[in-house]
Fold this sequence. Notes:
2 helices; 5 strands; five-stranded mixed β-sheet; alpha+beta; globular
Amino acid sequence: MVETAPRTVHFHQKHHRAVVSGEKVTTVRWNESVQVGAATFVFDDHPTAGPLPGTITAVNRHRLDTLTAEQAHQPPGTDMRRFGRQLREDYYPDMPDDAVVEVAELSIAPS
């Protein structure tokens, strides 16, 4: 059996508390090829947070222009057009409206 090193998944530092508390259990990504399995979660530019061992437990692909709040694990009634615009503004400026995004479910290792 071949073991591979955990993949690194980067997050904005603002997501650290939500990931650690278990409030944030998904992430929506574009062009990052997130895969199920062991992962190391890194919080870019966080002044004190080190890498966290975790797991990507599932990855589902959806077209951004048809992505529902339920598929993205967002609260009911979330304006998904605005959600897509925010992804573009904050992370993926070149992402087209019909992009296929990955909704990755995650968990951290118990401490």
